[in-house]
Amino acid sequence: MASPATHPPTDSPALAGSQSLGPRPGGSGPELDVEAIRADFPILHQEVNGRPLVYLDNAATSQKPAVVVEAIEGFYRRDNANVHRGLHELSRRSTERYEGARGVVASWLGVEDPGEVIWTRGATEAINLVARSWGDSHLREGDEILLTDLEHHSNLVPWQMLAARTGARLRYLELDDEGELILDDLPRILEGGRVRIAAISQVSNALGTLNPVAEIARQVKAHGGLVLVDGAQGAAHAPVRIPDLGIDFYAFSGHKMCGPTGVGVLWARRELLEAMEPFQGGGDMIDEVHRDHSTWAQLPYKFEAGTPNISGAIGLAEAIRYLNAVGAERILAHEQRLVRRTMKALEAMPGIRLFGPGDPAHRAGVVSFTMEGTHPHDIATILDSEGVAIRAGHHCAQLVMKRYGVAATARASFYLYNTEAEVDRLVESLGTVREIFG
Amino acid sequence: MTDRATPPMKALYQQLILDHYRNPRNRGELEEDGSTVEIHVRNPTCGDEIRLQLRVEEDRIQDIKFLGDGCSISQAAVSMMTTILKGKELDEAFGVTRRFTGMMHGDEEAARDPALGNLRSLAGVSRFPVRVKCALLGFEALQEAMKKSRSREEG
Fold first, then answer.
1. Per residue in B83-119, pLDDT tens?
2. Do residues A164 and A152 share a domain?
3. Number of folded domains that form chain B
4. Which residues of A, range 43-82, sit inside 8 Å of B by Cβ?
């Protein structure tokens, strides 16, 4: 929560909503008080190249509210010690805050067992953990791994490496012209009975598509496969309730959801984690160590070798409290309002090609586009010269770029602190691009 | 050009650069024979790519062509590069490469060197560190192609 000293309750959107970590009743609720939210993010209040910063690169990483920065700073100022070992006061506090953060994540995901919450460096490490610790011992030649053409490289490459190690085969769900997965192919792919795991993103980082992961999971599980959801974008931009998704593994990163970099989570069902070998060996993950072998610690520590990112976990828990108080449904609805405004303006500009679902209700806050005769890099440079930060490139999703026959796109991505006036600044600066490139 | 663009943008996107971007010179393919070398480079972070072909006879670039896909800076730079290097000895071409690289790293004297010809219009890129590698992509291909050609001569 916002610290009362800096943010009186009446000004803080974090305190305006419910403080419970459970599901929010009453649907999407009222619109966000974006100005109050912006007051919580110190970094937004600066000029870049002589203009007020317009930060529209949230799919790459989000900015951090002051409460998160202060939680991390406060930990190092007052409580820092290693966890799970010291018998002294600071270690007790550090352990309590670190394990408390795990409880915050579990509660936010809607799961009862904090032992199912494994801290990782991010979504990428979480997916690699599953590909190694589950994949190496469960897959063999002839088995199939189901992916989609929408995936970020972090949810492709670990599976390609696993396939190379085990002889398993990669299958893909393809994309339609609007950037939505073609589910009609799913029964045909599954009927062979060889898909052992499906790894699917909840939200596309390149196009913003909200994928029907619960429906895909239902079908895959009906054919005996497991389901991993890459929530790197989903955790930040869509409501997440593990019991509603009906999945086996969920991976996400802290930095895309107002938390610090270098921390993320793997959630998995306990019986799967119990049956998996450790990912890395080292301190904290052992029970007994002998000269020729060791035994493993209980969950979740079996998968947390070495001194963890303690301050990162504490910072992420603070980010979750902050976002939860605002409400995931309200944030998504706000992003969709900004997407609608952006798409409407871009559709009116000649030479603009929009990628992804035509219906803003099918996307989180991402708008990917190209401009005829102008490379996305040039668009990004010109926008930056006017203080507007976007991403240009393949967005670590080269299969998506190939599908639509482009090498790169420009991508504006929104979050809870972006405003309609900022959308207008984006559109205005695209006018400069048009003037320069004609 | 425009009323809206800031001075650094006007310096970066000069008409000459936009002209080479829209109408690249020496774009195409050489017929391959014993005197041609070919190098394909790409910038993995942004996807820009250039396929450069040289015909080198008696240590001289007799012909040069490229195919490429990328931003205005990478494509204009390689287009200008080909117009300057056609007919040059390899040693001269290595010299142009060194001068251009110097200009990209802020060497003002290099930016006045007549040997760089049109390439001097790219001097403004040095103020945009993330775009310097775009401008250097063609020269990266050139250096590798020339080394390949020389090692073949020696081999």
1. 999 999 999 999 999 999 999 999 999 999 999 999 9
2. yes
3. 1
4. 49-50
DSSP state for residue A79 in the 8-state scheme: I
Same-domain check for residues A170 and A185: yes
Residues A353 and A260 in one domain: no
Q: How far is CA A173 from CA A107, A146, A214, B27, B98, in A?
A: 32, 7, 15, 38, 48
State how far the alpha carbon of A185 is from the alpha carbons of A149, A181, A309, A403, in Å.
13, 9, 41, 17
User: Looking at A266, A301, A324, which one is the last position of a domain?
Assistant: A324
- Residue B73 sits in a domain of what CATH number? 3.90.1010.10
Domain CATH code at residue A417: 3.90.1150.10
Question: Which residues of chain B neighbour A398 with C-beta distances below 8 Å?
Answer: 47
Dist. CA B67–CA A173, nearest whole Å: 33
**Catalytic residue at A396?**
yes
C-alpha to C-alpha distance for A105 and A364, rounded to whole angstroms: 22
A110 close to A246: Cβ distance less than 8 angstroms? no
- Report the 3 state secondary structure along A186-200: HHHHHCCCCEEEEEE
Q: Is A435 on the interface with B (CB under 8 A)?
A: yes
The per-residue pLDDT string of chain A (438 residues; one tens digit each, 9 = 90 and over) reads: 333 333 333 333 433 333 444 434 334 567 899 999 999 999 999 999 999 999 999 999 999 999 999 999 999 999 999 999 778 999 999 999 999 999 999 999 999 999 999 999 999 999 999 999 999 999 999 999 999 999 999 999 999 999 999 999 999 999 999 999 999 999 999 999 999 999 999 999 999 999 999 999 999 999 999 999 999 999 999 999 999 999 999 999 999 999 999 999 999 999 999 999 999 999 999 999 999 999 999 999 999 999 999 999 999 999 999 999 999 999 999 999 999 999 999 999 999 999 999 999 999 999 999 999 999 999 999 999 999 999 999 999 999 999 999 999 999 999 999 999 999 999 999 999 999 998
Helix/strand/coil (H, E, C) string of A134-172? HHHHHCCCCCEEEEECCCCHHHCHHHHHHHHHHCCEEEE
**Where are any strands of DSSP class E within A8-116?**
47-48, 51-52, 54-55
Query: What whole-number distance in Å separates Cα of residue B84 and Cα of residue B81?
Result: 5
Q: Provide the CB-side half-sphere exposure for A385 (13 A, CA).
A: 23
Which ipTM value was assigned to this complex?
A: 0.92
Two structure tokens written together for A127:
């997916």
Closest among A244, A208, A214 to A227, alpha carbons compared: A214
Min Cα–Cα distance to chain B from A434, Å: 10
CB of A33 within 8 Å of any CB in chain B?
Answer: no
The closest alpha carbon to B138, from B32, B25, B58, B34, belongs to: B25
Which residues are CB-neighbours of A373 under 8 A, at least 6 positions away? A351, A437, A438, B22
Chain A nearest CA to B115, separation (Å) = 27
